[in-house]
Inverse folding.
């Protein structure tokens, strides 16, 4: 090798290395956050983006298992008190040290943000915080509360110094957006981009990226095009229809993981005269959906494999319960119900409706991946089993109002609906409480129980589980509650959504069950 | 002056009626509360949110409250973002104006010469090609053309960025602007071409053109002064209205190219039933149309000495 060529090679290597280092990470988001205030809107895109800048006492890993965050450890010291030991030596982005005062301040602000559309009060309620010393905080509750670490993991810790008197616009402008996270706020232009910069004095492992640029590209084909054109290094929420093509592309790679979101059907459990159930001749009929045999028949009439492979293009996993394997509180017994049209017909005959009946399924058409198409497929499958099913889909703004309280006296309006539920806490009590516990808005139970399913045994098991601090016992109680509710067909589980990211070759992403897109999880190999 | 005041009063009335229609309309369509809240919230938490937004009060009270605030220049806070609706819209207006004016200029600069050429030489093959092309410009759906342009120029050739906006009036900014501006301009270009052609064909047969030729003026002077000036009136009328449309409703192009403008904000707000933003947006749109119409009327007078503004009061 001549001197000249060697120099050239060294120079070239240096330039390449420099480029790789100096390069920003550019991420194309499907949904942008609505605000940079960490306590304004409890919404996945917000929580995902803000967890770069702010942290919680308890962290969730990519499968939503709890990990130490700003707290090094935590334990229940008696039935009604949890002790959190705070991490020492952590500094906010402005250099002020992080102490117990910031924790108390954050939990006080979180439920009280003016105009907050989805308040973080659901995680802070019922808890009294006591500062023991600068690095110890006690969380007290009236009764035993095992979900304390899960709840605590949902509340971002803000700086008391910058947060006092700060309103949502102060966070959007960056004035108050001072956290402890691995990245610092640089720019937030709603509708355009969000720029973050590495926090060089971060207490944890240093991320690979000096600067991260997030751009909202809501239209799915445009998002894919931005990746193909090299304008984004990674995109989230890859549309199912493009999966095959992206997988084949040698310049791209894919990261995927089963999510915490289940797609399910809710049935009218509470009315003898259900508005969208009619006899075959169009006359009135006593609501057959209240008979567990009929509900099982519906479940058996659905071919989940076909939905997963044809409608979801393989980007889903068929479901037999409320959360996929590996999450806390799932049952080992429950399996997806097999497609069995003859069994379904037999059960309908046993239940006294051998010729079926007429039914309407309602579904949103812009909320979940392929929601309207799934409803159409189910309509056809039920019709084949003898239940003449009409499919009605609508925009989610209308759907959720009607499905929750569109009927007389604010009751649910529909007889059979398709919906989805993602478990923010990453364990089974979340879907049990919201979808299957008896509707009781005062207690915060059954908030999304749009079929008004009510089973005293399930309620009892949920109450017991929520009062059991011992993890192993609670796991069993939750699994048992799920078994009772699902065997009674309180809801019909369809499939779990799979989260998919696509990135340029050489990049990799630690795919997350909670749909979060975190720059810290992206690495580059070459 | 009287003319201008009358116009302003008329537009105030339009704004008032429009805001009432939107208020009632959004309420009929759906309930923003159900889109925004999370299902884990207790009844008290939901009630508190509803109270803070004022959605617990009867609709007519909400509307009167809105009017009282609007009179002071406050169009309300976005339900979704918690910031003043007007601020959200004005923040995104520069991006939309940049895109709309770029598209507008393209349409005029390309459309008028093509149309005049086709009008002067209607039988030539080039003219036939221009007219066939204008039909395509009319009939191809914007989102499809946009995606095809991204596929060809960004993905396959890699010449231009696929989505987003760069800084204003920089090389990077212009590169980002090129595809969305062309995409948005195509339809208008086709429109201008056809208008210019029709006008030119008509003007070319007029006596004053024949006279100008007979006087021995150069062909370029005949075309650029005598013909051009006379075809401008219909072109300006239509373009004035179309410019309003370009600014207010470039929703599709903004969505396809992830252009951070007002159109994207509008479509997001409609999906989330963010009523304050929708109302504020339409109020601004109506005002803009009124202003543009006013300018068009004034331009008429400048272009055509026969038009006098006082005649238009009738």
């Amino acid at each position: 090798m001549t001197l000249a060529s060697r120099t050239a090679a060294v120079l070239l290597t240096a330039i390449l290395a420099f480029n790789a280092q100096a390069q920003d990470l550019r991420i194309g988001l499907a949904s942008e956050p609505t605000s940079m205030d960490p306590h304004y809107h409890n919404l996945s895109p917000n929580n995902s983006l803000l967890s770069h800048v702010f942290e919680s006492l308890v962290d969730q890993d990519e499968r939503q298992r709890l990990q130490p965050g700003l707290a090094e450890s935590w334990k229940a010291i008696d039935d009604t008190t949890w002790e959190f030991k705070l991490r020492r030596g952590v500094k906010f982005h402005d250099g002020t040290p992080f102490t117990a005062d910031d924790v108390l301040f954050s939990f006080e602000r979180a439920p009280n943000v003016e105009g907050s559309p989805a308040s973080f009060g659901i995680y802070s309620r019922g808890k009294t915080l006591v500062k023991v010393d600068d690095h110890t905080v006690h969380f007290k509750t009236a009764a035993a509360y095992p979900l304390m670490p899960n709840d605590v993991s949902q509340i971002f810790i803000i700086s008391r110094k910058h947060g006092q008197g700060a309103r949502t616009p102060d966070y959007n402008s960056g004035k108050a957006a001072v956290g402890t996270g691995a990245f610092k706020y640089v720019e937030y232009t709603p509708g355009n981009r969000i720029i973050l910069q590495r926090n060089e004095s971060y207490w944890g492992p240093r991320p690979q990226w000096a600067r991260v640029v997030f751009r909202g590209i809501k239209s799915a084909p445009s998002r894919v095009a931005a990746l193909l054109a090299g304008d984004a290094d990674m995109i989230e929420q890859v549309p199912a229809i493009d999966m095959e093509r992206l997988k084949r592309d040698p310049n791209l790679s894919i990261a995927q993981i089963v999510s915490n979101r289940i797609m399910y059907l809710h049935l009218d459990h509470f009315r003898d005269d259900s508005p969208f159930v009619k006899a075959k001749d169009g006359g009135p009929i006593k609501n057959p959906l209240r008979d567990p045999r009929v509900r099982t028949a519906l479940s058996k009439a659905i071919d989940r494999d076909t939905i997963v492979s044809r409608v979801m293009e393989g980007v889903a996993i068929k479901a037999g319960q409320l959360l996929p394997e590996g999450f806390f509180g799932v049952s080992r017994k429950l399996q997806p119900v097999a497609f069995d049209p003859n069994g379904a017909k037999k059960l309908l005959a046993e239940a006294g409706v051998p010729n079926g009946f007429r039914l309407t399924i309602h579904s949103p058409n812009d909320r979940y991946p392929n929601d309207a198409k799934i409803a159409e497929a189910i309509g056809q499958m039920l019709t084949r089993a003898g239940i003449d099913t009409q499919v009605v889909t609508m925009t989610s703004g209308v759907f959720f109002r009607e499905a929750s309280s569109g009927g007389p006296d604010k009751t649910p309006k529909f007889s059979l609906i398709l919906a989805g539920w993602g478990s923010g806490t990453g364990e089974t009590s979340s879907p049990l409480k919201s979808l299957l516990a008896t509707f009781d808005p005062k207690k915060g139970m059954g908030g999304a129980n749009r079929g008004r399913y009510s089973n005293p045994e399930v309620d009892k098991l949920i109450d017991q589980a929520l009062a059991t601090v011992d993890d192993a016992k609670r796991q069993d109680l939750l699994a048992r509650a799920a078994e009772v509710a699902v065997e009674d067909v309180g809801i019909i589980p369809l499939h779990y959504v799979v989260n998919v990211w696509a990135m340029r070759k050489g990049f990799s992403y630690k795919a997350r069950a909670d749909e979060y897109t975190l720059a810290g999880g992206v690495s580059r190999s070459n | 002056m009287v003319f201008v005041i009358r116009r302003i009063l008329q537009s105030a009335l339009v704004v008032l009626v429009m805001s009432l229609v939107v208020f009632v309309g959004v309420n009929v369509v759906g309930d923003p509360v159900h889109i925004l809240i999370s299902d884990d919230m207790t009844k008290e938490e939901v009630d508190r949110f509803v109270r803070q937004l004022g959605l617990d009060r009867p609709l007519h009270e909400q509307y009167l409250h809105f009017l009282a605030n609007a009179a002071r220049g406050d169009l309300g806070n976005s339900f979704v973002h918690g910031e003043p609706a007007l601020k959200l819209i004005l923040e995104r207006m520069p991006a939309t104006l940049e895109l709309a004016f770029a598209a507008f200029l393209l349409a005029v600069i390309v459309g008028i010469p093509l149309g005049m050429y086709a009008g002067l030489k209607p039988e030539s093959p080039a003219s036939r090609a221009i007219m066939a092309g204008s039909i395509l410009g009319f009939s191809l759906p914007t989102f499809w053309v946009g995606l095809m342009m991204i596929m060809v120029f960004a993905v396959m050739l890699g010449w231009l960025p696929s989505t987003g906006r760069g800084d204003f009036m920089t090389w990077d900014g212009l590169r980002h602007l090129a595809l969305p501006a062309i995409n948005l301009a195509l339809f208008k270009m086709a429109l201008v071409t056809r208008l210019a052609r029709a006008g030119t064909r008509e003007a070319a047969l007029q006596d004053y053109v024949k006279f100008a030729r007979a006087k021995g003026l150069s062909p370029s002077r005949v075309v650029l002064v005598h013909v051009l000036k006379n075809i401008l009136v219909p072109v300006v009328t239509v373009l004035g209205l179309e410019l309003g449309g370009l600014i207010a409703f470039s929703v599709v192009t903004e969505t396809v190219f992830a252009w951070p403008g007002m159109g994207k904000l509008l479509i997001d707000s409609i999906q989330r039933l963010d009523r304050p933003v929708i109302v504020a947006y339409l109020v601004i749109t109506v005002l803009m149309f009124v202003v543009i119409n006013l300018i068009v009327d004034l331009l008429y007078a400048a272009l055509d000495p026969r038009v006098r503004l006082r005649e238009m009061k009738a």
Notes: Residues 211 and 217 of chain B are 9 Å apart (CA to CA). Chain B touches chain A through 54 residues (CB under 8 Å). The mean pLDDT of chain B is 84. The first helix of chain B runs from residue 2 to 29.
